[in-house]
Amino acid sequence: MSISPTRWQRHQRLVRSLQWLGRPLFWLLLAIVQGFLISKKIFWQWKAIILLAVTICLFYFGVIYHLPKVTNLVDHSPRLTTKILDRHGRLLYKFYRREDRTLIHLNKLPQYVLDATLAAEDKEFWHHPGISPTGVLRAIFFDLRHPHQPPIGGSTITQQLVKNVFLGSEKTIRRKLREIVLALLVERKFSKRQILEMYLNTIPYGGTTYGIEEASQRYFGHPARQLSLAEAAFLAGLPKAPSRYSPFGAHPELAKQRQRFVLAEMLRAGFISPQEYQQALAEPLHFQSQAIKILAPHFVFYVKDILSQRYGERMVEEGGLEVTTSLDLDLQQKGEKILREELDRVAAFHVGNGAALVLQPKTGEILAMIGSKDYFDFAHDGNVNVTLQERQPGSAIKPVNYAVALGMGFTPATIISDTPTSFQIPGQPTYQPHNYDHRFHGPVSLRTALGSSLNVPAVKVLASYGVPRMITMGQRLGITSWTNPQRYGLSLTLGGGEVRMIDLATVYATLANLGQRVDPNPLLTVRDAQGHLLYQQPPLKPKQVLDPGVAFLLNDILSDDQARSLAFGRHSLLEIPNARVAVKTGTTNNLRDNWAVGYTPYFVVATWVGNNDNSPMSHVASGITGATPIWRRLTLTLLRQYPQTGWPVPNDVVRRQICLTSGTLPCPECPQVGWEYFLRRYQPSHNCNKTTNKQPTTNNGN
Description:
This protein has 4 domains: 5-64; 96-300, Biosynthetic peptidoglycan transglycosylase-like (Penicillin binding protein transpeptidase fold), CATH 1.10.3810.10; 335-639, 3-Layer(aba) Sandwich (Beta-lactamase), CATH 3.40.710; 653-692, no CATH class. The chain has 23 helices and 18 strands. The strands form 6 sheets. The chain has a 5-stranded mixed sheet. It has a 5-stranded antiparallel sheet with strand order 5-4-16-15-14, with helices on both faces. Strand 1 and strand 2 (91-95) form a beta hairpin. Helix 6 (157-165) packs across helix 7 and helix 11 runs antiparallel to helix 12. The chain starts with a helix and ends in a 23-residue tail after the last strand.
């Protein structure tokens, strides 16, 4: 069929408009269009051709169009610096990746350095064409079987190379297809050894470190050719998540776990012998001191870990973010000074380390985070952030127990017998709790039992309602480490379940908020390199997790100097003159952990002293020596900025005159009358009598 002039003109205009699409696609589309102009009927084969053409078009422009040249693998675009600022805009640290790197050839590296990298990232590297179908299937099946765990990657070393050099970290199908095409092209252009060499010279190993040579110099202070098997396995584990597995990051203990994983994979792949595996596991890693200028290092790396999980490693180290945090640098540096001074005073008592955390209860903002005495003391694990580690809290956990009890009918006036008691638990030895002073005090009020931190009454209270309820209450108040209820028994109320300091501070912040929980938050704003707001502290939505009346009763007891006098005497370091400050101490029976946590409505101060190796301290009693002096000095500092203390009485709390020896309304025979707060629904309704008026024992104990 011939084409009329008019139709031919339209045809030519269409041709010119399609020329920009690219020569290969143009000829394909031209053939299809001409076929339609010539033919009167559309057959099924033309539909298939149309579908194929559209598919090719989408794939070409969506995936292949503007792909970078694989010959430019070693070229990188400029990278921008991420700034971490305190709440007043003062610089704490900069994260960036250097443009320069030290290149090294494969023939200069020990074979186990290559094997460690392949074991950690791509065991099939020498055999696949750039992509690994089995790796992809393995990742898919893992993600389907473990939907609540972080997904594992199926990328080969070649894919990781092109992703890090050419592509972003976005998780889209388009990016993955571009990655696959580039990986196939790279495998056609370069040999396997060239690809592995480029990978080892360009992959990020955390912070400002690019390439295996620079990583070896940064972490161990010697060239990569001198790396031991243990060191090589450690470095091979870093690229997976450099911030998470860094020995200088928020979770340095994960670095050793990752190293063990890499060594196990090397053993499984036959790269090393069982003897070499055991020798590498036993070899200690000696990290080189990092000569970096950084303020509040534990806090900075805690923030970086959060940012990396939210935006990805590449964005944090190259994206030029400006991060304004909640930290108050003046308070942070004051706290660091106080911690060092007080630890020096008790160094003779085998107290080697300490930590402190300051929160604002109403906002969850972290004002100060001091993770150890000296972050740069790597020989003694100074880089470990104790505020994020699980430690036994001792008696500092008792308010969680009494929070349950006060909501179930106990009152501050309830009389509890502090006498020798044995608990028989099926399948376990008989449990006989003892007080810290190794004495028994007879009948005491709940106020005195909590204020003076008596162990026997606390265990009796817990036994009256059961451990599961205390675990549930702890989780509601902010504890994240109590995940296996079968692990815990009645000793939970004495500190038998490990908690993180940041969680324990959240518990006390919830009490300070009269039962409203606001989780810790170190970020105020995050902006990108163009100044666009990526994150802003969201409007507060506190969650009411505890009866305000119960929280008020606990606050009143913990701020009552008279209630704690049985154990600590009057006017101890726990009392702050002219201020109503609640405080609780905690010391483990083995003297490995010593705590003091105190608060007002406007701040929480949590302090800890001990040793990272869990060796016991000596002569550190009940928090009065050790954590308490640190807490007191920090609290006095904060009171100058936040002087208001005390809590308003909730509507469901009433104050009644009672007989102190019986916890009931007074009667003529009552030897001692006083005032007490009650939840309205649990206030006493009857008077005492002669049989209930027994004076409690007042033996003093420390």
